[in-house]
Design a protein that fits this description.
heterotrimer, A mainly alpha (about 100), B mainly alpha (about 400), C mainly alpha (about 160), B: about 400 residues, mainly alpha, 16 helices, about 0% strand, C: about 160 residues, Four Helix Bundle (Hemerythrin (Met), subunit A), 6 helices, globular
Chain lengths: ~100, ~400, ~160
């Protein structure tokens, strides 16, 4: 059996890969993908802690993960719609070029 | 007599156990499970592609009859005069697609272009793993999540369609892929919602339990299929419509409309890869039909609980129902014209979706009034609740489509 | 550490790295789908069948389609030789530092060595009953949120069509 730390390490690794992507990529869609990856890493933690908890029959981790998946879907829909609007307005999806608000 | 037929019913299972018994006693456990899996998978991989091959011939012959021509009737056994009414055609077709040159466009994204047909065929084959083909004959029994597995795996074919369309670097491929994805995403909602009524009534996601839930009888002989209720009948019609769209069948075949966008997302595929797309499409249709049979048509149960019908093996009933649905789809293909994209989307969102939601309410009412209200009243109320919205929505839909104006024909 | 876990975890992490580092954005999206599928595999390893298949249905079936549509709709008109990243070393070192912190915390804590209790059958029925009783308020809020998100996404994305600019 894999101990809890195995899942936690995979989750931490995924979170940090997502973080690196969100911090370094220029394209807004890629930033959003990084955030999605981070959310998924958090989901893995919810499920792992649920499975290894003392009383899994309360199903707290499972319900949390389900809600989190639903939120991530909503976030992706709205986020991508915003990016498409930004692209229509500025003709670019590059987050560095969108700087109209700079004084 | 009945015992003999029970033996015949269990023949595939007995055969598997017999073959498993041939393994030497010292076989390691992992090898036993691998052999068991192979013995389960092989019949599926043999029966359904063979059914696909026969369907291609029957479809061409049937469409030929509908269009007042003959269809393939020449190819039989090679080097002889035996023609078999053209049923050797699929062998010739298979050999042709095997030895044809495999052309990959120079601009194509080679890796994705290569992976797309594989990524399409694997999920389609995986959907078969939860279908109960007969009594005690379900390859992978998921007691908690069977139906969810089917839809989850089925949904991942959309991405393969995108991969095929995008990697070809061809505008017709991309257009076809976009059409196909928009259509599949839209029609997935009525598909899942119409199956949800069955889940509500059976109280389980396991496909085996859903079949067993239909085993009771009306009036002592007619099996309790979900089709024989108002919500089940409407649900089955909605399911079949959505399944036709999901499998890109006429009248919803605009992603591959030959006259408009050549062949859609697999325009740039040739040879054996094209054959895989063709195979995956038909296998997807069969899987959808199989799910419809399991959910609404009583799975492997005979229609009536009377002796000669119960003697027929359960897997024969499943395959028989499947063949009947395939013939229905061929008939529809020969009869109905193709829709336009806006009509297609409007039909999914303005007609199918409201109808499935109303059907959910009707199913809930049917369930709540069980036992308390006379069955005749339940039937009348249920049908009225479905027929009136059907009529109103249909009227509204026709009004928005408007009468067809012929600009150039006159 | 079991073999299936090692294979799935390696696949997931590898495809996640590919998803964040490839140049072609469609390739990134496809690798990310592999990551999502790998995560679903990890959920199955953890006996969370329902969440695992929901993950496939939502992410592989829906979110990935949204992403590839968005990528195609915003196909960049910028020159190809422009780098895909900004100040990569700063971002990567921040991420590595974050990972080291978390990994040390995980390895130091006694909870990490805990082994799973024998698998109990998770009934979807109980999960549904929980959602409809204990968690009914979050569930309703979620329904509201999804409706609002759907309407919001449609309105945001079609605003320019009116020709208001």
């Amino acid at each position: 059996m894999t101990p809890l730390s195995g899942y936690l390490l995979v989750s931490a690794l995924l979170f940090c890969i997502g973080l690196a992507g969100a911090l370094t990529r220029r394209n807004a869609i890629m930033v959003l993908l990084g955030i999605e990856l981070m959310l998924n890493a958090a989901n893995l933690n919810f499920i792992a802690f649920w499975r290894f908890s003392e009383n899994p029959e309360t199903m707290t981790g499972l319900t949390f993960a389900l809600f989190s998946i639903a939120i991530a879907a909503a976030e992706a829909a709205v986020g991508l719609a915003l990016i498409i609007t930004i692209y229509r307005h500025f003709r670019t999806a590059n987050v560095d070029k969108v700087e109209d608000m700079k004084g | 007599m009945a015992e003999l037929f029970a033996k015949l019913d269990a023949l595939p299972v007995t055969l598997k156990h017999l073959l498993m018994g041939l393994l030497p006693g010292a076989t390691p456990e992992w090898l036993v499970s691998v052999v068991s899996a192979v013995l389960t998978i092989t019949p599926i991989l043999a029966v359904f592609p063979l059914m696909f091959a026969l369907t291609t011939v029957i479809e061409r012959k049937g469409l030929g009859r509908i269009q007042n021509r003959i269809g393939p009737n020449r190819v039989g056994i090679p080097l002889t005069d035996i023609r078999l009414w053209g049923f050797g055609q699929f062998i010739a077709d298979g050999i042709k697609s095997l030895i044809k040159e495999d052309v990959v466009p120079r601009a194509a994204d080679k890796v994705v272009h290569f992976l797309a047909p594989i990524a399409l065929l694997i999920p389609v084959l995986l959907t078969y793993s939860v279908l109960p083909f007969g009594k005690n004959m379900v390859p992978l029994d998921l007691p908690q999540t069977g139906l969810l597995f089917f839809f989850a795996v089925g949904a991942s074919t959309e991405l393969s369609v995108f991969m095929a369309g995008w990697s070809s670097r061809n505008k017709y491929s991309l257009l076809g892929a976009m059409r196909a994805i928009a259509q599949m995403v839209s029609y997935e909602i009525p598909l899942i919602l119409s199956s949800l009524t069955v889940v509500m009534m059976a109280g389980t996601l396991s496909l085996t339990s859903i079949v067993e839930h239909q085993a009771g009888t009306h009036f002592g002989f007619l099996h309790n299929w979900h089709l024989f209720t108002p919500w089940g009948f409407v649900g089955f019609c909605l399911f079949l419509t959505a399944a036709a769209a999901e499998a890109n069948r006429t009248p919803f075949d605009l992603p591959e409309a030959e006259s408009e966008i050549i062949a859609g997302y697999f325009t740039e595929y040739s040879g054996f890869k094209f054959a895989i797309f063709f195979l995956a499409e038909y296998l997807g249709l069969f899987a959808m039909c199989g799910l419809g049979i399991t959910l609404f048509l009583g799975g492997w149960l005979p229609p009536v609980n009377i002796a000669p019908f119960t003697w027929v093996p359960s897997w024969c009933w499943f395959l028989g129902k499947l063949s009947a649905l395939i013939v229905l789809f061929i008939w529809l293909r020969g009869t109905l014209p193709r829709l336009r994209t806006d009509q297609l989307m409007g039909f999914a969102w303005k007609f199918l979706l409201p109808m499935t939601l109303i059907n959910l309410v009707v199913a809930a009412l049917w369930h709540m009034s069980g036992g308390a209200v006379h069955i005749g009243i339940r039937w009348v109320v249920g049908f009225a609740m479905l027929a009136i919205p059907y009529w109103l929505l249909g009227r509204g839909f026709e009004a928005s489509v408007g009468k067809r104006v012929y600009r150039f024909a006159n | 550490m079991t073999l299936p876990f090692a294979i799935i975890a390696g696949l997931t992490v590898g495809s996640a790295i590919a998803a964040m580092s490839l140049r072609n954005m469609v390739h990134c999206a496809l690798s990310l789908v592999l990551t999502f599928a790998g995560l679903a595999g990890l959920y199955l390893q953890l006996n969370a069948e329902f969440v695992g298949f929901t993950q496939i249905l939502v992410y592989v079936g829906a979110v990935s389609i949204l992403i590839v549509f968005a990528i195609l709709l915003t196909r960049s008109t910028e020159p190809k030789d422009e780098p895909a990243t900004v100040t990569p070393w700063v971002g990567i070192s921040v991420a590595v530092a974050a990972f080291l912190t978390m990994a040390l915390a995980v390895l130091a804590s006694p909870i990490g060595k805990r082994l799973a209790a024998p698998a109990s059958e998770v009934s979807v029925k109980t999960l549904g009953q929980k959602l409809m009783t204990d968690y009914v308020l979050p569930l309703e809020v979620m329904a509201l949120l999804l409706t609002a998100a759907m309407l919001g996404a449609v309105i945001i994305a079609m605003k320019d069509k009116e020709g208001s600019r």
